[in-house]
Amino acid sequence: MKLFIKYMVSTRCKMLVKEELRKLGLHFIVVDLGEVEIMEDISVELRTKLNAALQLSGLELMDDKKSVMIEKITNTIIEMVHYSAELPAINYSDYISEKLGFDYTYLSNIFSEVKGITIQQFIILHKIERIKELIIYGELNITEIAWKMNYSSVAHLSNQFKKVTGLSPSHFKLLKVKRRIPIEEIGNIESN
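Predicted structure:
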């Protein structure tokens, strides 16, 4: 049986979900970002207990198809931007469409309707947060970061970074307090 979990965006979330499933005596086959496959069919009572346990950690089970699709799109983008060694060489729209098995226009329309921003804007916000992370780590220079994040030039990265943050990457690097947005809050209208 497949379960879909909202706000499940990190390895820590996956570990937490595994622990909650074990506590309830459920056996998982796969625990992935936003999605869990368990061996059992669960009762309404057990589902309610699992949801209550997950909510204590800021996660929740999802039921409606639109929410599940939004979460799949979100998790695909998070995985692509934050957890891949490098971004895909193909268009992001082709990548997302291929990964989820749906027409990009369909995915884009649902995403914009629910989130209030386009998938492209959401990707840009995530890329900027990833760039902040890479700047803070200090292992790569701006040219290397631009290449790693698939920007055509340092100028393109700098312009986009400044448009989103109000700062140039070099100014951001000089800040004593570097402000980052938690992954699960990126693109939420309330947090931006």
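Summary: The domain at 70-191 is CATH 1.10.10.60 (Arc Repressor Mutant, subunit A).
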